[in-house]
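Weekly modeling sync, notes
Attendees: S.R. (lead), two postdocs, one rotation student

Agenda item 3: backlog of single-chain predictions. S.R. asked that every request posted to the team notebook include the full sequence so nobody has to chase files. The rotation student volunteered to paste the first one in as an example of the format we agreed on. Action items at the bottom.

Example entry:
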Amino acid sequence: MRKTPALIPFAAATSLGLIAACAGITQSYAVYPRYSASDATYAAADRDLKVIVLGNPTALPKDRFESAVALAMQGKNFQHGTRFTVTPGASWRADYRVVVAFGAPANASGSVYCRYAAPPEPVAGQQPIRMVLAFCDGEALLSEVLASTPSVAAPGELDRLMADTLRALMPAVSPGRRGN
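Predicted structure, as returned to the notebook:
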């Protein structure tokens, strides 16, 4: 049975919006078409979860920026023991991944990034930086967050950005559902 998408507009996501506003992050919205907290636990608790980073709004080399994003994600979700990594090991459940796209085009959504086809090219020099985070199970979009931020270059900005967006991407309670 296919569940209808649950849209959580900015007004309903006030906790993220208020926290994010302090860091200069604006959350446009979060969508949970197939998300359940129990699926997220199955995919991520006490195991590796692959992170695919697209775009690089910093001067860091691509591999160092990807590692910095994965490191900034550690401990920011409710599933205990998740090891966000760009190079997952044997504990990774191969269909699950989080895509973090920096410089996402205006028409890009999480479902585009879950498909195995080539994703849209990042927009270089974009200000503010538009981001799409997608939690995927194969080609299926489980949840997505669209956000923007003025920068990820200053110390602590990437950590705050990942903390704020991951709480919305992988919440402890399944939005729009009773129980899990």
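Discussion: group reviewed the output briefly. The two ends are 15 Å apart (CA to CA).
Action items: rotation student to repeat for the remaining queue; S.R. to check formatting next week.
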